[in-house]
Amino acid sequence: MNCVTDAGTDRGQRYLRGKVATLIANWISVFSVFATLCAMIFGLKPGFVLSRYRQSALAILVSTLGLGAAAGEAQAMSAGCIAINAANGATGNIDVHNVEFRSGDVINYSVTGTYSDFFYIDYSGVFGSGGGWNYSTPQSGTLTATSTGVGGFRILYGSTSYTKSLSCTSVPTVPDAPTGATATAGDEQASVAFTAPSNNGDATITSYTVTSNPGGLTATGAASPLVVNGLTNGTSYTFTVTAKNSVGTGTASSASRAVTPKGSQTITFANPGAQAYGSSLSLTATADSGLPVSFSSQTSGVCTVTSAGAVSFASTGTCKIEASLAGSSAFTAATAVVQSFAVTAAAPSSPTVGSVTAGDGEATVSFTASSSDGGSPISKYTVTANPGGLTASGSTSPITVSGLKNGTSYSFTVTATNSAGTSSSSASSASVTPAATLAAPVAGGVAITVAANSSANAVTPSLSGGTAASVDIASAPSHGAATVSGLSISYTPTSGYSGSDSFTYTATNATGTSAAATVTVTVTAPAPTASFTFSPTGGALTAAMAGEDYSEQITATGGTAPLTYSLASGSLPKGMVLNVSTGELTGPLDEDTEGKYSFAIKVVDAKSASASASYSLTVKERTVTAANKVVNVAAGSSPADVNLNDGATGGPFTSADLTFVEPANAGTATIIRGTVAAISATPPRGWYLKFTPNPSYSGDAKVGYKLVSSLGTSNTGTVTYRLAYDAKDVATEISTLVENFVKSRQSMISSAIKIPGLMERRQAEQATEAVTTTVSPSAEGMSLGFSTSTAQIEAARNHADGISGGASSPFNVWIDGTLMTHNRNDNGDRWGFFGMVDLGADYLLNEKALVGVSLHYDRMTDPTDEDVELTGNGWLAGPYASLEIGKGVFWDTSLLYGGSSNDIDTAYWDGAFDTTRWMADTSLKGQLMLDEKTVLTPKLRAVYFSEKVEDYSVSNAAGDRIDIDGFDEKQFRISLGAEIARSFTLENDATLTPKLGATGGFSGIDGAGMFGSLSAGFSLQMANAWAIDGSVLVNFEGDGDKSIGAKLGASKRF
């Protein structure tokens, strides 16, 4: 774009050609103007003062043209600004002309300082449609070129100006070279991508041409990419790109990276089909390119293959062979072809027969295993005799063939068998002839019993194997004598001896002597005499009950153990059994066995001495009874379930009932059925008492029960548990109670504590009531509150006297109170009490600052559903301050320190604990009047509460003491909330103000996490001085607790 000025007076201005703008500053007269033009400066030094008719060339900073690169006398100033100071002048203006602009070029301008009249810009159509003057233009802005044409603008100061215009014509050139040429090779072709040149020479590009090197092959098209065909595979090529417009073809781009076109190739490889293990296989495959194909195995555990295709089999299974072909300079790599085929088992190879040893009617054949198992494990080897065809099989060598005829010559062959079949027979073995042989005799053990003092007791040897010619005593007996006569043995015990004895003997023939065998001898004692004592000595036994279990121990002492018991005379009731080893009589007895029985019990000792005693037994009619039981329970443990059927009569029982637990808080008792584990598949039967002790209780706990059957209801049986308390469990339980108590009290203190700030002070000064009270029920309790102050009392008195706007005292004393009932999960259906009294004094430093001190007393009772109550009295004191940091925005903060004294009262353990505490509370709040009738009250609050519980102890009525470690309970609560209220005047002059509020926050450290609340309410101020307030509040806690509450109140001024 070339531009020239019109015939106006330039007053010596100097033009810079090309893409550099020339800035002419003409000052018509001395005029009081101070301005700063931020630009890239040519030819001016910092602080240079432009006076009347002084000109210098200035270049406006145009972001898209990069004018800062202009040559000549250009000097870029670091500050980028030049001060233009014309004193006592009339009008000043700055012209920019002779500029080459393109659509989208941006000129930024900025004017600062003092000017008298007005400021405006004159620009031609190049910067927008219409051109002309643009009055009231701000002191900074942006001008954007939208088309070619006259290019120029001026910035004027003051009330007068002169006019100079520009005429511009467009002179197109050839386009620049494209950039970023990138080639992608194909089969005898390449695709070339590129980026269009940034400069099209001010004329539309009509086509692009891609040229190959070598070969000079071309492709022409309107846009990237272009494909060049006819290339030679295997030859390396680079490519350049040129752009063409109406003027001509521009310079070529830089050459692309070299690429090489390549052709494809395909492999033909046929499946050879199933192959037998041990067979040979040679594979062939071809490629349409004529290049050699290579083979590889994908299942080396089944088969292997050479690169030329020779296959070897390692096992049966599926063989996978891959045929592949790598690429070359003219071809890409071929897609591999994989063929899978089965390798099946074959019969094993023949074993190799070895030596043969003849025996008596048999022969033992040794052989070498098959060299190949045919791909399947060999299951057996079979030896066949010739003549006769007798066989024997086995898994390993050697194998013995039995049933042969002594004196007959035999040879043998061996075969191997697997899952595929049986191998061919081995070559025949050498011939052998079985023959009979005389075996050595075998002596066996013998056991005899002889009487004491007897003699020449015959002993018959136990002989087998070869026929014995003689027997001999190998080792003599210890308590007698053994003699041999031929093949007979006799034994004589030592006189007077009775008991066990033994000796050994051997048998001999021509072949050899047997191993020694043992003769075990028992020498019986003569009939003994002994004295026995029975317990009970005789007479009536403990009565039994028909159909019930029974146990009575009859014990005899004396004689030589072991003792054996038996029924000597009489009869036992049906179902009763006498234990022959222990003498115990046991049931259960059969039904209908009522009556009196007489019988004698006999005992016999190891020496056959015996005695007897006579007894009588009465079997009573069957009734229902329950037995008393005692269970000892170690500290910290739970007793096993007690089987109530044991010792009871009159079953089977249809039910069992608890009658009492004494004391009631000693533990929890339940009756269960069929839950006791059983080893056998038969499910457990009967009724069981399950008792869970209170870990805090020690002493006897008694549980009464009754059993019911078809016969009726039993007496009351008693199970007595002798309990010891678990100090660790007691400490854990009480520590948990204390922790929950302190945590709940911290939350209630955080929500109930009241310290009035500047906003409340101002509200109190507008009060019409001397005392404010509130009652708020909710799902977890009820709150009653009151508050007043000297400022509120004074304001109420002034209101009653008709005085408004009276001056307020800087000093104020206030009091506030809260009473709450509360209930949480641990309380069950019992309600606790919390009360807090806040009082303090503050001083108004000025309208926006207040300081004071406050004292707070709290008391809390917290009963639980386990007959436990914790109570505490606490206090907090410290300074506070309130500042108005913005109109209607208040910052309140306080720092309090205190402590508490607390009592623990449980069913068995009592104690006390003390705490020290401190609390930091800060908030931002205010009232924003959205309009005359709408008020928004936001509040951002953060509270940090730390309370340290000192070490403490508890004790029980027996004087036992348990020491419990203290702990730190901390909460950090941050919340953000707001309430919006709008007043409406009704037709009866009453004022209705609906309200909506929401609060959300997070309680960290030991707190419950996220919490929040939603509220909705209203207040209705009647014309007759009655006022009605109502609200609904929904609370959400991070641990899942939710509560909802409502408030409704009415008041009247008198």
Automatic annotation (TrEMBL):
Family annotation (Gene3D superfamilies): 2.60.40.2810, Autotransporter beta-domain, Immunoglobulins
Keyword list, A-Z: Membrane, Transmembrane, Transmembrane helix
Family matches, as InterPro entries: Autotransporte_beta, Autotransporte_beta_dom_sf, Cadherin-like_sf, FN3_dom, FN3_sf, Ig-like_fold
Coiled-coil region: none
One MF annotation (Gene Ontology) recorded for this entry: calcium ion binding
Annotated transmembrane regions: 24-44
SMART domains (UniProt xref): Autotransporter (SM00869), FN3 (SM00060)
Domain Fibronectin type-III, chain residue ranges per copy: 174-263, 347-436
Species, as recorded: Neorhizobium alkalisoli
Domain Autotransporter: residue ranges: 806-1054
Name used for this protein in its record: Putative Ig domain-containing protein
GO cellular component: membrane
